[in-house]
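So, does this match?
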Amino acid sequence: MIRANVKTEVRCRSETAAGRSASRWKRAALWLLGFLAVTGFAWTCSVRLGVKEQLAFGWGFVLLILCIRKGRFRNAQFQRILLILLCLVMAGRYWFFRTAETLFYTGAMDWAGMTLLYLAECYAIVVFLLSAFVNVSPLRREPLPVDLADRGLPVVDVFIPTYSEPVEMVAITATAAARMDYPRDKLNIYILDDGATHQKRMDPNPSRALEALTRYETLRKLADFLEVRYTTRGKNDHAKAGNLNQALRRTSHGQIGSELTDPTLTAGGFGGKGGDLVLVLDCDHVPTRDFLKNTAGFFQKDEKLFLVQTPHFFINPDPVERNLATFEDNPGENEMFYGEVLPSLDFWESAFFCGSGALLRRRCLQEAGGIAGETITEDAETALSLHARGYRSAYYGRPMVCGLSPETFSDFVLQRNRWAQGMTQIFLLKNPLFQKGLKLHQRLAYLNTCGFWFFGLARIVFLLAPLLYLFFGLRIYNATLPQVAAYALPYLAAAMLLSDYLFGKVRRPFFSDLYEAALSLYNVPAVVSTFLRPRSPRFKVTPKEKSLQSDFVSPLAWPFQVLLLLLLAAYPMAWVRWVRFPLEHDVLLIALCWSTFNLFFTFLCMGVVTERKQIRRKHRIRTREELHIRPAGASGKTRAVLLDLSEDGVGLEVEGLFPVAVGDRIELFAADSQGKEYRLPAEVMRIVPGKGVKILGCLFVVDDELTFTQIVGFVYGDSERWNRFWLRRRETPGGFVGSAGTLLLKGIQ
């Protein structure tokens, strides 16, 4: 038996080494190809052509890109690289044209505006180049399931940090964590409560102190019932990073039990040696049963692996998706990152810690001094530090945690500004280009991640540029209409076609522009303030699980209202200039088309900041699964179809003959994709008759704590349900015209 285990371990290690070797050879081949491409790229971009020749060249390239996109290649990787190279040529041709032929002095104000616009375009082209490099070869990992009977499985500590979130939310996540498929003697679950620290319980304000004390007692009782562990600390130092590091120190050295004598440090009655691995779950990120079963094996195969990151799945729409009603039939905003970008970063050995839904090796964290805390994006900063030490990361792309998006646009902006400030801090304080220990491709990958968050600076320039000409006559883009048709439009068309090819299944055309336009006006002050004072940002918790009792206009709407008025006023100004300056018709048409494009997105942003009523606090997700039901106390079962579910209840479709009335109790019998069976009580709250069927709206009946744990397991335990939901949204047809039309209709509604 021992020999068999040794042979298996050796074989697994050799397979892992072979896989890493193949990846290294593939990266080396891509670097060589990249060098040759850059040489040809530089020559191709610098060749001067007349406008007519460039017009034929540019649109000929666009036609070629279209043909390659539609073509069927045996080697999809070759097709991907070829498209990227062709699009880079178009970007290079445009940049060379802008640099060599459009920058000349016509006045101080003109020069200032022209320089800003040129720098914004240079930024956009650099981000385009970095993105093309990063996304050249996404790595799709298969799961490495573990044998749950193996006594050599690593011990896992589950950390659930919480601050001000509802106790019920913490209870659901802790319950689901306790139900994960993993040997219970190798699983330690900790609720890390920063909402009831000793400092908060001793607050001079009696109401705040009582609130903290109530939370403290409630969560302790919850932990006792679930047989998990509860701890808090003396002060809320260093936000989430400080909370995690305190837990790491205590569990690493087995000091929790000994520290109980000091009430300023902790609460709870537990101690012991820390686990080999640490699973970090935000308290609104509910894990599925197979999380550890699918991820712990990666660490058994690679001793230098410090991280396995998984995607974040959100059960509710973010404010943009809710206010424009795009949640059900379009991929979510985060699916581009978790569906394409992180797999691509994984290929370049740069998949980073995203704060939750991640399994980390404790030994590596200890070597690095714990979770990094110099910036407010402690997750990415920690990964950067460990990558620089030569450790490896992995990304496994199956959704196995279910979380909550911010409910209001204000909270959404708060969250994204925190990310933007944190990545700006990393860029300034720990610039990946100069970080010792990183490989060149890792430096470029991290630079791409940091650089993206400066999008607001460029977006605002692009929004204001045409208005500077229409209102003030500033000549900031010195090109004729034929030149724009020959250089700018083919480049934009190529970039859009490439983006749709790379990300079309996870991001519809124009959706990225919409999100960036909606956030840009608030992103810029956050980023600029961080540039001025890199150490000033402070971690702010994103509020979750709010209900909106009525429609209202967000208090953040006023910048878009002002911008909308300016863009509408641009049309009469354009008419005045058309009449007064007949020699400027080319420039005027360019500015007017550009301004109309900006008006389209500003109009959509007005829809985004118009908050729609959201009374339901427990979000239901659509599905279609078979189960059986019966009236309480009856013997026979009837087939039914599960249409939607939440932790509060379900929607069912049953045959019209099923004998049931409002107020009746029924029992649900279901099984998930892994064969786990559930028997759940529910009460019928409404009945909607249909053609030969009835639609039942039912609420779960929670008779005791055991029923609650069963409900949590049924609703959140099956990762296949989240995977199906993702795949279903990705099947919705996209297309440029269809996507633009959809957004316009949603904005009008």
Q: What stands out?
A: Residues 509 and 736 are 6 Å apart (CA to CA). Confidence is low (pLDDT under 50) at residues 1-15, 255-272.
